[in-house]
Amino acid sequence: MKQPQLIALAAASVLAGAGVPAVAQEKPNVIIVIADDLGCGDVSAYGGSLKTPNFDRLAREGLRFTRGYAASATSSPSRYGLLTGVYPWRKNVNILPGDSPLIIPTDKPTMATMFWERGYATCAIGKWHLGLGRGNSDWNKKISPGPSEIGFDHSFIMAATNDRVPCVYFSNGYVVNRDPADPIFVSYRKNFPGEPTGRTHPHLLKQQPAPNHGHADAVVNGVSRIGFMKGGEKARWVDEEMANVFAREAHDFIRKNKDRPFFMYYALHQPHVPRVPNPKFAGKSGLGPRGDVILEADAQVGELLDLLKAENLDRKTLIVFTSDNGPVLNDGYADGAEEFATEKKYRPAGTLRGGKYSLFEGGTRVPFVVRWQGRVKPGVSDVPVSQLDLFASFADLVGGNVPRDTDSEIHTDVFLGKNKKAGRKNFVVEATGRLAYREGDFVYIPARPKLPPVAWLTKIENGNAKVDALYNIAADPAQQKNLAEAQPKKLRQMRERFLKITRQKASKK
Q1: Comparing 236 with 12, which gets the higher pLDDT?
Q2: pLDDT value at position 405?
Q3: Do 350 and 39 touch, CB atoms closer than 8 A?
Q4: Has residue 21 got a pLDDT over 90?
Q5: What is the dihedral of CA 8, 9, 11, 16, to 10 degrees?
Q6: Contact at 8 Å (CB) between 113 and 394?
Q7: For 272-300, what is the mean pLDDT?
Q8: Which pLDDT band, with edges at 50, 70 and 90, does 277 fall under?
Q9: H/E run at residue 155
């Protein structure tokens, strides 16, 4: 990051705490491991039937939150909220195509710039899905702005998701293994002449797209994607090796920076579609490819923990393990996820209602574990926490800066397990542009009478209804009883507070 940009970011921030906390003198390493579309029912520590020993190891050695929330029920908005500390709905952030420009302003502080200012080495590994460049990018040159312009010293990422083009890796803005003789072209409007697609060449596919889901465009590694791509044959990824590629980069970064404090944003691509596990995990879960890639992700987490221990960093490193949003079974490919789940009575969201794309709890209530050996006492906490608050809380922990105008709150003691009684009092969550409000044990979902009650083709209840809904998630975690008529006063209070939050500061964000 250039010095003038650092000055501008500092001017837009204030010190998070009154002075530098004593614990900040240690400058713990910080790693955020964020899975993609992983539900509470996908982790055995949360009651799931699929055994995930390494996720469980984190939960056993750390503090497991039973009410941990993402900012959104979909990927791009959720990640935006985590890294900026700003509600994604304030900026109308939605799911991005693979050729989207960077949506995080380069003149605004991020979690990465905060750590960078405190002397941390910073790194982004894995799924990005926050846009690259300024739009209409020439993929054969350096793509800027990107992670480097918002605080990351090093990045090794995919542009969007594994079901969208361009299907190549980017290292610090450049396509890995790019070949000037085979330039890359990308379009989300029309195909390039002569290029095979899932529709025209189904015989090339090793995994068929689900009907009407729109995953039948460019064919890369025997899988059809969203969007069209030409060229870059040497640069194209191999899905079966993706987890190992990202893990190698993450481990290299840790080894190179083990003698200084570091912050790593490690974004796993599993279990997002297409689910194409390494042969080592294929068929191991008994739940089809979706279960197999969850086991693959679990193994990657295990290897990360083993590395930290081998390098004598496990007690020097605070790890957050979570997911960007709730789970989904049928999300674009006919990989048998629904059929296996039905046969095995498998519930990826556990006892929660809804999932990805949903305003019900299953959309944003996700696995959420904080481990810092020797500093965070292992256990379970029912205190509500939000990924939005990691920014301000980490800044408080290391004596860093946070934006003057942010939705992120300081809850350091809650994340460290020192306060198990008071967490976030209220917050707003988002799902494809729709909002819901959580306060204490209650959830308010405004009526959406003109919208369908089921999300797209996923068969997931999205929370849309003809009337307002009010749920007590402590007494009714599955959200089966609408209390709107029985508790009109509470409904009115929740609606008024929801409107106040969503209207205030809107012009400042």
Answers
A1: 236
A2: 86
A3: yes
A4: no
A5: -170
A6: no
A7: 98
A8: very high
A9: strand 154-158
DSSP string, 84-145: H-S-GGGGT--PPPTTPPP-S-TTS--HHHHHHHTT-EEEEEEE--S--TTSS--TTS---S
Whether 293 and 275 have beta carbons less than 8 Å apart is answered as: yes
Distance separating alpha carbons of residues 80 and 495, to the nearest angstrom: 26
Cα-based distances in Å from 165 to 13, 20, 324: 36, 44, 20
| Positive/negative CA dihedral, 470, 472, 477, 478 | negative
pLDDT band at 17 (very low <50, low <70, confident <90, very high): very low
Q: What is the pLDDT of residue 436?
A: 98
* Token pair for 115: 């750590």
C-alpha 423/C-alpha 388 separation (Å) is: 12
Instruction: Evaluate the CA torsion angle 100, 103, 105, 106 in order and state its sign.
Output: negative
Please report the beta strands in 345-464, taking only residues with DSSP state E, as ranges in sequence order.
Answer: 368-371, 379-381, 385-386, 401-403, 426-431, 434-439, 442-445, 454-455, 460-461
C-alpha to C-alpha distance for 78 and 322, rounded to whole angstroms: 12
Which residues, 6+ apart, have CB-to-CB distance to 453 below 8 Å?
A: 461, 462, 464, 465
Predicted local distance difference test score (pLDDT) of residue 12: 53
**Phi/psi at 285 (5° precision):** -90, -25
Task: Mention every residue, 6+ apart, whose C-beta is less than 8 A from residue 488.
Answer: none
Written as one letter, the residue type at 68 is: G
User: Residue 124 — pLDDT band, cuts 50, 70, 90?
Assistant: very high
Q: Is the pLDDT of residue 9 over 80?
A: no
Q: Is 158 helix (H, G, I), strand (E, B) or coil?
A: strand
| pLDDT at 449 exceeding the cut of 60 | yes
**Which residues fall within 8 angstroms of residue 143, CB to CB, at 6 or more apart?**
132, 133, 137, 170, 173, 174
337, 330 Cβ separation under 8 angstroms: yes
How do residues 55-87 score in pLDDT, each as one tens digit?
A: 999 999 999 999 999 999 999 999 999 999 999
**How far is residue 167's CA from residue 230's CA, in Å, rounded to a whole number?**
10
69: three-class secondary structure by DSSP: strand
Rounded to a whole number of angstroms, the distance between the first and last alpha carbons of the chain is 23
Distance CA 122, CA 255 (A): 13
Q: What is the pLDDT of residue 24?
A: 43
DSSP 420-442: SS---SEEEEEETTEEEEEETTE
Residue type, 364: T
